[in-house]
Amino acid sequence: MFINKFYSFSLLSLVCLILIIGGCTDNHAVSLRYEAEKKLYQAEKANEKAGIKPELVTPEVMEQIENLYTSAADFSLAALDSVDQTQNPVEYHELQYLAFQATNRIAQIFHHNRHYTKTITILKRLLAATSLQPLQKLTTQINLGSALQASGYWDSALVIYNSVIEEYYPPTDENDDVLLTLINLPAHIYRVEKLTGDSSTATDKLEWALKYYNDLATSFPGTKLEAVSRGNLIRLYDQAGQWEEEIDQLSLLLDSTSSNYLSIRIKIADLYGTYLKQPKRALRLYSEITEGLNDSDSLIYPIVQYKIALVQMEEENYTEARRIVIGLKSNYRRYFASNPMAQYLVARSFELGGNWSRAEVEYRFLIENYRGSDEAMSALLYVAKYLEEEGRTQESKHWYQEAEKYYKEIAATGSGTIKEAKALAYQAELFGKQENWSGAAQQLTHLFERFPETEPGHRALLRASDIYKNKLGDTATADSLVEIFRTSISEITNTQEK
Q1: What is residue 449's three-state secondary structure?
Q2: Which stretches of the chain score pLDDT less than 50?
Q3: pTM, entire model
Q4: Among 58, 149, 326, 418, which residue carries the largest CB count within 10 Å?
């Protein structure tokens, strides 16, 4: 993620400085600083004005804003050559700060508009021409790494990422606040390698990231740094499928006074009930959670009951699972109405229990009453494929035709939203089930072009690459799509794992 958050520039402060300094221009260094402040203020004011009604911003207005920031950055950097750092240390450092702000602001705009070469050039210039304060330098380096990754230079980005991880250890500022973008870098590197690299490299990066976070957690016990590090460990173990290790970390965070206490207990039970295949233990944990609920936890009860039903399904107790969910439909109507997975479970329980005709009715209810949900769109293809495998060709053909129409309608009514993205993905899946692999690949790349910065868009690109490689035999296109994908995930999450 492109960042400019370690420092924030106050327009009010700028105005005050301009008013205070306005008449004091005998000192050349002060005059230069004043002029640099004025230029940055003009750029910030224009950018702020554009942000009020972004829908009215024209390319000409954006070009004007870019020019204002560029002018402020150029002037600040040039002014540094005219100011003696020894004789005017205050003005020199303030000019550096102004150069930092202006450069990173314009870099942010360039990056957003995918002008990555420009972004890289101006950030490298700033780093070469200045001796920034540590957090200013860190911000600029991470932004440069992000731009390099987005431009396709992953190896170069990796050099910068590794450098800042080593240089800024522990990842905290002078107030011991955690620098979230920095601390999440090892997890980001692993994610990129896992999704686009070879398995051995991904394994190495996983072990490296796990060691980094484990070292932080054990070296700084009882601090925010430990909590964030353990959150990253949980995320990494989950991504790597190391469920027992994930439970170990979750257990360390259990605190009955914490707002996350119930959610952590539920997550632990989920892992036992699904991935670890320990249904009895999961049911016992869910039962303990349910028994401990009070009136203020009324929203939690149907969630836990639904999860119990899922475990019963895994145990092939289909009648019991359905009984639980039907109870939710009667007693927690709002929950049932807003959770298509519950209706899907009803349909699936009839199917696995050997009653296909009733299952088909329930799938139809799901499709019509939870329109546009993942479960509804998935059910259309599932029923069509089931009928096809049963030799009911005409019925299957009808369901496929209905699915195609359904997805087009959802895409049209949800134009520009995630609903459209999901509908396009299901259209591609429909093409795949009909073995129209060329159509599926084209649809998926179209989806990415429509939604390049979303999770559905990212998944679509990887799926398209897989089709080109394994279905169409076009390795070159497959590899090029992987590289495009690598550039598209340059954003580094700065959120703390719960």
Answers
A1: helix
A2: 5-9, 11-12, 15, 18-19, 21-25, 497-498
A3: 0.87
A4: 149
